[in-house]
Each structure stands twice: as structure tokens, then as C-alpha cells.
Prior knowledge:
Elements: H1 3-8, H2 18-27, E1 29-33, E2 38-40, E3 49-60, E4 66-70, E5 75-76, H3 78-83, E6 90-102, H4 104-113, H5 115-153
Antiparallel strand pairs: 1-6, 2-6, 3-4, 3-5, 3-6
Amino acid sequence: MNVQDAIRQSYISEGFTPAELELVYSIAELRTFADGEAILRQFDENKDLYVLASGKASILTVIGEPIGVVKPGMPMGEISFLDGKPRSVSVVSIGESTAVVLPAEPLRAILGQNKEMAVKALTNISRVLCARLRNANNNIAALMALDESDTSLTR
């Protein structure tokens, strides 16, 4: 897969015009990751935005437990890109994978100069974050229900 195809098929670029896509292509680079190689490392200061182009990746907690899977088209590192803080999780390649890297500062500059494009990009990232938050809320609710059923058994 090439950079252009990966970006066009990603959630981030939904609704972009051909001219807006060209701006993103101009700063993007494609990187390959081996099985088990870290794509993102928790607490790293890097703010670049990644989009998985091919393969799969596992989202890991601080103790290395998997909490999710990233599939092609999905962004990675969007939280650090948005809030400027260190990475909140690690992401490790499952098998060989490729990712498009969108360097934070050039991407911020492009979005700062193109307000309509910025709205589209931020709306797209927000949708991804909302889906992840809903999933996390469902998982928390399931764990709380499980915990409540355990305590009722011991009474």
C-alpha cells in the first residue's frame, strides 16, 4: 500500500477535497514495523499522528496487557497530537504492519492555514475518540456489573 491510498482510506481524511489530500500527502511518510515492534511507546514525547495502513496492532496498558486492536484506516497517537502530552498507551505491531506518519508540526501548520480542513480532520478524530470512549464505558459497566454480582454471591 502507498501513502496516498492509506490516507484516502483512513478515517482522518473523510470528506477531504483532492487539494486537501495533496497537502497531507506532501508531509506523510510510510513506515514498516516488524512483529512485536513498538509503533508508539507509552510516555514518549512524540506528538506525530499515525494511521495504520496495513496489518494490525495491539494497544497495550502500562503493564503490557492488550486493551484493543488497531486495524487499517484507524489513527494512532491522536490523543498526544491533540493535547500535546506524552503518549497514553503503547501500540505494538501484530505481524508486519505499515503505518503512515503525519508529523505533528507540519500537520498543525496545514490545519492552521486551512480552517475548513481542520474542522473536517478534528471532526473525524472526534468520531474515533467517541467510539473508543463508548467502548471503554461499556467495558467499565460490564466490569462493574461483574463486580456487583461477585459481592452479592458472598453475602
